[in-house]
Write a structure and sequence with these properties.
Structural class: alpha+beta
Number of domains: 2
Helix content: 25-40%
Oligomer: single chain
CATH architecture of the largest domain: Roll
Radius of gyration: 19 Å
Strand order of the largest sheet: 5-8-9-7-6
Largest sheet: 5 strands, mixed
CATH class of the largest domain: Mainly Beta
Length: about 150
């Protein structure tokens, strides 16, 4: 495991509070309108989706030949180490915010949980990947890619 990042506790609390208030509002408005059963089902689905979002983890793992980037539990991509052209810390910007898998335009994909990130380039894509320590993660990725090329 080269890196693992999750949604910060502060962000988790904000999301849980907003969704909790939304669910209370749905139930309170459903009681007088007589659609409590449908609304309760909708609240259950919203709660399950929220738990999935709060548990998102972005990981970077390396084997001898590949790098696997994941936005668990939704997405995983295996990239041959020989395809890695460059890796560096990402500049702080609004593009590193947000959660999940995101298409950011111009062949750029993000695996994000907010906070610091690194940029990794391959011939076909640019990746913006959340990591708690972008500098050491980028160095580790480049070291692995270099070792792969030297074999």
């Amino acid at each position: 495991m080269i890196s693992e990042a999750g949604i910060s506790r502060r962000s988790q609390k904000v999301i849980a509070t907003v969704v909790g208030l939304l669910c209370v509002f749905i139930i309170v408005t459903a009681i007088p309108s007589g659609v409590l059963l449908i609304s309760a089902g909708m609240v259950a689905v919203i709660a399950l989706l929220t738990v999935s979002v709060l548990r998102i983890r972005v990981t970077i793992e390396a084997t001898e030949q590949n790098l696997t980037v994941r936005c668990q539990p939704f997405y995983a991509k295996t990239i041959p180490l020989e395809d890695i052209v460059d890796a560096s810390p990402a500049p702080s910007s609004s593009m590193t915010e947000g959660f999940g898998v995101r298409y950011l335009g111009q062949r750029t994909w993000g695996l994000l949980v907010g906070g610091p990130a690194m940029v990794m380039e391959t011939p076909t894509r640019t990746w913006l990947i959340s990591t708690p320590d972008p500098e050491s993660t980028a160095t580790a990725v480049l070291d692995r890619a270099g070792q792969s090329r030297n074999r």
